[in-house]
Amino acid sequence: MAFSDHDIYRIFLSTRPQIQRFLRHRIRCDDTAADLIQDIFLRLTLLKPPPASEIEVQAWLFKVASNLSLDHLRTQKRRYELLDQYLGDETDIDASAAPERTAEAQEQLQHIQTALADLPDQCAEILYLSRIEGLSHVQIAKQLKISTSWVEKQLAKALLHCRQAVDSQ
């Protein structure tokens, strides 16, 4: 006998405290754990075909929680890597940087922000998914339901546009 949506929501609500503890332990952030719980709730409609037992529902809930937490941790790691790559350690920063250098960096940042704002929406999204989220071209293509070659072309276009904005200073 398959469970109805009502039964699945009931199981979710009864299992929610254990899932939240599981996520808090993995992520070490109450707010993020609560956000991921909401994501799990929204994915309940994706549970097809309906499971035949409560254990199957709970297993699915914990599998989704595990996958979401891994995705979150990978994204965090990628962000920290990017920050470290572009900003470096605090020891790398010259505390007595000249005001001219600061103004120059702010101007360069403004050019890049303007270049990013000028990109078509899909092109900007592809750049974000590739460089910030760390997704592969194939993953981006699947997510956006486009071809991998289109992802590559749009990414090249975005990078060229940003490079030209920096070089035109």
TrEMBL record:
Pfam families: Sigma70_r2, Sigma70_r4_2. The keyword Calcium does not apply. Residues 112-162 form the RNA polymerase sigma factor 70 region 4 type domain. Residues 13-79 form the RNA polymerase sigma-70 region domain. Keywords: Sigma factor, Transcription, Transcription regulation. SUPFAM superfamilies: Sigma2 domain of RNA polymerase sigma factors (SSF88946), Sigma3 and sigma4 domains of RNA polymerase sigma factors (SSF88659). PANTHER family: RNA POLYMERASE ECF-TYPE SIGMA FACTO (PTHR43133), RNA POLYMERASE SIGMA FACTOR FECI-RELATED (PTHR43133:SF63). NCBIfam families: sigma70-ECF. Belongs to the sigma-70 factor family. ECF subfamily. This is RNA polymerase sigma factor. It comes from Methylomonas fluvii.
